[in-house]
Design brief:
Elements: H1 3-14, H2 16-35, H3 42-62, H4 67-73, H5 77-82, H6 87-108, H7 110-119, H8 124-147, H9 154-180, H10 186-220, H11 228-247, H12 252-273, H13 282-289, H14 292-302, H15 306-331, H16 336-366, H17 375-399, H18 402-408, H19 418-429, H20 439-487
Helix pairs in contact: 1-6, 2-3, 3-6, 3-8, 3-9, 6-8, 6-10, 8-9, 8-10, 10-11, 10-12, 11-12, 12-15, 13-14, 13-20, 14-15, 15-16, 15-20, 16-17, 16-20, 17-18, 19-20
Length: about 500
């Protein structure tokens, strides 16, 4: 058993969060059992479920809100390094220990659940299923809070804590009152979205837990530990699996947009890839270099660093364009003009997405800020571009000219909203009234006339900033090739 898991379990069992929460829940449930012996009721059910949801979903995750910052800010990291624990094992030990306490808390309320069953009026199987759902919600909240607990500033951690716990509390509040009224909804949910839809939600949830835990582990990991490869591979596996499951769901919304939701979630890994410092240490490069040409080629996508993040982001944007194109071509039943408009809009948005990711790299390289590169520099570069384009867009709202629309695309991120701007311009230029027959066709024809200029501007803007970023990344790729030659694996 991991030393970190043993240490965290001991601390958790002694912590006031668990001890007083455990004693309070048991005392309250025991008193209620004596007061309402042999009788059920909605009020008793509400108190029972809050006795479970409160500690499992709110109280125990709360103790992880500063866990990693305490390790990083204290004098314990050197001791942990001496134990040869990796960043991942440290984080997973903390999370599993808290999950074990949550499971223990959930198990202790089972006798009272049995008492309510014998009192009559409840569906035991459905209530056990809801107990599992509350437990799943609790371990997910723990993973998110633990993964983001590395944030340096207290206000940021407080904002994360407030956001997570408010959403968790809202879900618990709604669910507790529904379950207390015996409106379980599990069977109807299965009938509505099907088994594939349920597995789709499970896959997204498991990936989210892994992502946030890995995010925290990457902050503790030494430079020689490669956290980028598992993170990027997990996203590359999650998206196709989730997309296939969504296509077999019974729910139209999941079937039509499930793949795009998975792609949007995977873009978090792209942002993280674009925020990493390059690493060319032997333990990082060796596993790829010794696998020959294809291993070295995979290293250009999976090794840590913003320079490989450029290639990784490009592959994701190309994949997103392909998925969207296939979806539109296979599901659209409109006119050929509208189909061409949709295809051009997809191309525009994908160019904008690529430029959105790489623009801060190019901007930082121009101002020679790549030596201290991190997520906050990436965010600052994005904010600068957003402010500049926001000023132009404010003028566009007043005048709605094609020239202002194209000028706003100097920052590639503004390209994402360019199709909507083109549609609004076209609607103003169409002379017929909205209710007149043929208005929609006239608007689509006008949009089709505007889109080639929009696509060209989006492609030029994205290509310029991508090439600028690649120019500054050439040094890092050269260092990677040098590390491969030193190892003896050759180079690309």
């Amino acid at each position: 058993m991991s030393p970190m898991l043993v240490k965290e379990l001991r601390m958790g069992l002694k912590s006031p969060f668990f001890v007083w929460g455990f004693l309070g829940v048991q005392l309250l449930l025991a008193l209620l059992s004596l007061m309402f012996a042999g009788r059920g009721g909605e009020d008793l059910a509400i108190v029972f479920w809050w006795c479970l949801a409160g500690p499992v979903c709110l109280l125990l995750p709360l103790r992880l809100s500063g866990a990693l910052r305490e390790e990083m800010g204290g004098n314990t990291m050197d001791t942990l390094v001496l134990t040869r624990l990796s960043g991942w094992r440290i984080v997973i030990g903390k999370w599993v220990a808290t999950a074990a306490l949550q499971v223990l808390m959930a198990l202790t309320v089972l006798p009272y659940l049995i008492l309510r069953y014998f009192a009559g009026g409840i569906d035991l199987v459905q209530e056990i299923a809801w107990l599992g759902l509350f437990l799943l919600l609790g371990v997910t909240a723990s993973a998110v809070l633990l993964g983001l607990s590395f944030l340096k500033y207290f206000l940021l951690r407080a904002a994360v804590l407030l956001a997570v716990l408010l959403h968790t509390f809202g879900f618990c509040a709604v669910s507790v009152f529904e379950v207390a009224r015996q409106q379980y909804g599990i069977e109807s949910l299965h009938d509505e979205i099907g088994t594939a839809g349920i597995w789709y939600c499970v896959v997204l949830l498991l990936w989210a837990i892994f992502f946030f835990l890995d995010l925290g582990a990457s902050q503790l990991a030494p430079d020689s530990e490669n956290r980028a490869t598992p993170r990027r591979l997990a996203a590359m596996v999650m998206v196709p699996v989730a997309t296939v499951l969504s296509l077999h769901s019974r729910e139209n919304d999941i079937r039509e947009a499930g793949g795009f939701v998975a792609l949007g979630a995977a873009m978090l890994t792209v942002v993280q890839a674009m925020s990493e410092q390059p690493g060319h240490l032997r333990p990082l490069v060796l596993p790829f270099a010794r696998r020959g040409f294809f291993g070295r080629l995979a290293g250009r996508v999976l090794l840590p660093g913003w320079h490989t993040g450029l290639i990784y982001a490009t592959l994701w944007v190309v994949a997103a364009a392909w998925v969207a194109s296939v979806y539109v071509a296979s599901n659209y039943r409109g006119s050929p003009v509208t189909l061409r408009v949709e295809a051009l809009m997809i191309a525009t948005v994908c160019c904008g997405a690529l430029g959105f990711f790489v623009f801060p790299i190019g901007l930082a390289g121009i101002f020679r800020k790549l030596a201290a590169w991190n997520f906050w520099w990436w965010l600052a570069g994005t904010a600068i571009g957003a402010v500049v384009s926001g000023i132009v867009l404010a003028l566009w709202v007043l005048f709605k000219s094609t020239g202002l629309m194209l000028l706003s695309m100097v920052w590639p991120g503004a390209t994402i909203v360019a199709p909507a701007m083109a549609v609004e311009i076209a609607e103003e230029q169409v002379e017929t009234d909205y209710f007149t027959s043929g208005w929609y066709e006239g608007r689509q024809e006008r949009v089709l006339q505007l889109m080639p200029a929009v696509v060209s501007a989006a492609l030029i803007s994205a290509a310029i900033w991508w090439l600028v970023a690649l120019w500054f990344g050439r040094r890092e790729f050269a260092r990677l090739r040098a590390a491969e030659r030193e190892i003896g694996g050759g180079s690309l």
